[in-house]
Design a protein that fits this description.
By secondary structure, the protein is mostly helical. The chain has one domain (13-74). It is 47% helix and 0% strand. It has 4 helices and no strands. The radius of gyration is 17 Å and the shape is extended.
Length: 76
């Protein structure tokens, strides 16, 4: 597997340190609200059910595992 491909947000630990381990102090100081992950997932799912799956940008494929890679992973 490659970082940033196939499985969303999968990164090697050395890359994740700079990509995902970001402090939120400044955002909170500026009043940016946060909410539970479950609420965000439920709202995103509801939106997808109404709007349908968006088309990928030109030159990109839909997110997710290619069928052959998914099958290989399931067999392990």
């Amino acid at each position: 597997m490659e970082p940033w491909q196939h499985l969303p947000f999968w990164l090697p630990a050395d890359v994740a340190v700079t990509a995902c381990d970001v402090g939120t102090t400044r955002a909170r100081e500026l009043g940016l609200p946060s909410r539970p992950v479950q609420e965000s997932v439920a709202d995103t799912w509801a939106w997808l059910q109404r709007a349908g799956r968006p088309a990928p940008p030109p030159g990109r494929t839909l997110p997710g595992l290619p069928g052959d890679l998914e099958n290989a992973l399931l067999r392990t």
